[in-house]
Amino acid sequence: MSITIQNVEHVAKLARLDLSEEEKEQFTEQLNAILKYAEQLNKLDTDHVEPTSHPISVSNVTREDQVKPSLSLDKVMLNAPEEEEGQFKVPAVME
After folding, report:
1. pLDDT digits (tens, 9 = 90+) for 81-92
2. Residue predicted with more confidence, 61 or 85
3. In this predicted model, what pLDDT tens digit does every residue of 16-33 receive, in sequence order?
4. How sure is the predictor about 52, in pLDDT bands with cuts at 50, 70 and 90?
């Protein structure tokens, strides 16, 4: 498969990019070089390779939830610049 200037123009149009003729040629060459490099993967024998979603095995490393006592409301409100009815009072965002 190879990329043509028309392909580059189509993608540029979808992305609403205004490319010069020089940029179109440059991107066509670069994309074709990438595809040529990727074609090397087709030469590899992968018949006995298991499909993977990650190159190394990964396990969930989260800990179990533990119930712990939290701060009292009085201690929490010590951090509030202003407090009203047990809630943080902040400046209004909208008028």
Report:
1. 899 988 999 888
2. 85
3. 999 999 999 999 999 999
4. confident
CA distances from 56 to 24, 51, 52, 53, 63 (A): 39, 12, 9, 9, 21
Task: For the domain covering 5-43, report its CATH number.
Answer: 1.10.20.60
Can you tell me the distance from the alpha carbon of 33 to that of 47, in angstroms, rounded to the nearest whole number? Answer: 26
> Amino acid identity of 48?
H
Full 3-state SS string of the chain: CCCCHHHHHHHHHHCCCCCCHHHHHHHHHHHHHHHHHHHHHHHCCCCCCCCCCCCCCCCCCCCCCCCCCCCCHHHHHCCCCCEECCEECCCCCCC
Q: How far apart are CA 50 and CA 48, in angstroms?
A: 6
Domain boundaries, the chain: 5-43
